[in-house]
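note to self — DONT lose this again. spent like an hour looking for the file last time. sequence + predicted structure for the chain T wanted, 90 res
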Amino acid sequence: MWVTPDTSTLNAIIVNCVNLDKTMPKLKTKKSAAKRFRITGSGKKILRRKANKNHLLEHKTTKQKRRLSNLVLVDETNEKEVRLMLPYAK
């Protein structure tokens, strides 16, 4: 048996559909990228950590471990991909 909805229900459905069409969809930030990369104050450069500083540190020299602690710039070839993962970064 088919029941016709009342006019207030139909109006609410139509209003919701119209409102959805007017707004642009939000872009989602990749949370894994947000935790790994940092944007500089100017917003022109992206910083990242160096690899090989998590474990097996016993055989590495103090000098090597100290240099691995510094942040470095993301290479130009990867910068576009990182920026796509962080749409709301400066």
